[in-house]
Amino acid sequence: MKDAAPSTPQAVRLEDYTPWSHVVDRVQLTFRLDPRATRVISRLSLEPNPAGPQGRRMFLHGEGLTLIRASIDGRAVTPDLTPDGLYCDVPEGPFTWECEVEIAPEGNTALEGLYMSNGMYCTQCEAEGFRKITYYPDRPDVMAPFDVRVESAMPVLLSNGNPGATGTLADGTPWVEWHDPWPKPSYLFALVAGDLRAHSDRFTTASDRDVALNIWVRPGDEDRCAYAMDALKRSMAWDEQVYGREYDLDVFNIVAVDDFNMGAMENKGLNIFNSKYVLASPQTATDRDYELIEGIIAHEYFHNWTGNRITCRDWFQLCLKEGLTVFRDQQFSGDQRSVPVKRIEDVLQLRARQFREDNGPLAHPVRPSSYIEINNFYTATVYEKGAEVIGMLKLLVGDAQYAEALALYFDRHDGDAATIEDWLAVFEDVTKRDLRQFSRWYTQAGTPRLSVEETFDAGTYTLRFRQRTPPTPGQAEKLPQVIPIAVGLLAPDGSEVVPTTVLEMTQEEQSFSFDGLAARPVPSLLRGFSAPVILDRASDAAERAFLLAHDTDAFNRWEAGRSLAKEVLLRMVGDNAPPSADYLAALDQVLADDTLDPAFRALVLQLPSEDDIAQSLHDNGTTPDPTAIHIARDALAHAQAEALAPKLPALFDAMTRPGPYTPDAEAAGCRALRHIALSLLTRLDGGDRAAQEFDRADNMTEELGALGLLIRAGRGTDPVARFAERWGHDRLVMDKWFQLQVNMAPPEQAVTRAETLAQRPDFDWKNPNKFRALIGGLAANAAGFHDPSGAGYRFVGEWLSRLDKVNPQTTARMTTVFETWPRYDADRQDMIRETLTRIANTPDLSRDTAEMVSRILG
Ligand code: 0A1
Ligand code: ZN
Boundaries of each Peptidase M1 membrane alanine aminopeptidase domain copy (predicted)? Predict the structure, then answer.
């Protein structure tokens, strides 16, 4: 009874939501694990749902399953199988459904459902993977307690919840039972079986619950779990202190797997992680890795309340859990490290990924209203813009009312599958505000442009703002949004005359005045990046340099330096202007200011990315030339190096800290600034110092940093080979090696290098991390990827067509490297369209990739 081929994809629409016909009171699952023939026996206690459609027929999702038997109340039934599931006639009242299916985890290369990674069984069920495990109402609003029994000879057998009985079958096969008392949707189900080792610890909650913590890894990786464990305990304590949320089971398990489509997954009590976001040692992980591990461990842990205890009614509400959980993990990381530095990093990410998405063919609202494949909507817009929307809400209502609203949300909706309307109603009830206009942030796509004009007259300073959101696919007209604009005013001597004030803009055009000023002030607008908008403001370089030197808002100090650099670069690309001396002088001051956090100084010195410059040129109506951008950016970096040369050696030495590596933010900040100094010095000495550094580095941050500079300087051949000799045994370190070589390569060599690397036997392209490292690494080398010959597009296109056969989800996500095509010249546009059309015409293309390619082509 094998099912037929999948049906033609149809769009799912928010407006069509209807509850399921039945309620699941209990789920009992038994797994007899076998790589080629796993048996899954499922028993569901069901009853009619008074709130759902009434009738005597039920539908269960199911994909790629072989149905062995099915029964209702113990009597065999023959359901009608469809490509997406089954229909079955059911009794009028409560009944028990039982079925047995067979699946083959070994052949599951899509890494969705039950699959195998290095001989270990694991699952990924969000969003719709559970239907590849058994027949089930696989939708987030169906919540039930799960009892799971796993039968297997594997030494470690895990599932959600608390451990239960264990035993041995007559044939000697061991079994274990797990009981999860918290009703959950199927997307939070997880099972792991393998030869694993635990790094264990304990945590006592505020209510004195003793929780066993385990991080499960492959043998040999046990000594790389300490940082993740430390981050987990800090996350648990932080959620108690800041949000009053405690953990609610006796055990919390984390498992690291090498083959994983995303970063990690918040399955109840059994989080599954991409191993790169768990495993760390000073020798193998960079500062950035440590930071990401901390943030992702926190993110998944925080989902226990925002996502698991309160889940989503349907997948259109994805931002309900993701936006809020990202917001929470950003708050956590800020508290653990530095609030302004974290904010700058988050805004850099937001602009690089979300603004790019929001200003191209894939733009969609934070809460989309239709989709073909939900896996394509785990986007920067849903996650990062979703978090920004919460940040704005908090700013508008204030910290105290935000805390009250969150307490009410947890109280009112615990155990619910909720909606964005529920979320906003909580804020309306607490604050008595009308949030109807604010809710447009959830339904309108596109990044609002905010322009401003100012006047000063008889002591009154007036800011006149205008907002406009360009059309996005399917949304031609945009209405004004509520924009919180945090503003401060500085006097000409640099003192602050008006401290941060939040202006609430609601109209298309709106003025705000400040009286009683002795002189025309310098405005510091959108402090802390108080709204995800693009601010257009004509201001001169002198004013930006003034803000870079004097603003009391650290974010805006950085922003002033950033916009200065951007402006200089745009003039260098467009008019062949020389690097601006004012800009270099301002940098010189920042560099020498020891009162500033080294991490902050490193961020000020870092130039805008080539992609960022391309987007700005496009926004200004100029067609970007990736080669010219690369040359200009290089030239500005050279000018920085020459201008700052006298200070660089001393800075490098000052940032060299004695003693062994520690991953804390302070030490990492010094290394970041030290690396910038080394990078600039490399432009002057051709790499001599970087070569010394490569030889002496005792940690991956410095070793990899130096290697990248040597590659960029054209001195990479020998160190690249030595690095591979040293680290060939380590899969995660080798991912960095693949990535760096194409990413740092001179643009004209990038594609050939990628082609050569792709031939290597250790380029295991079916592993998503490896694929992303090499193919994604090339796409991140903007001038190399956009090589005028089109070789970069063809290379990436061919690999995407190939990967689609084994892993549609990762393929579909990577098609976004082409989303910026409308920016470029006619030749490049033609070549990209040709590549995308070729992908679209690949026989048997997945629904995932087909949807993405057709949206990108528009
Ligand atoms: N919910 C996870 C991310 C995630 C989403 C989808 C996945 O498979 C399609 C896997 C993981 C998170 O936010 O961390
Ligand atoms: Zn998440």
Answer: 227-441
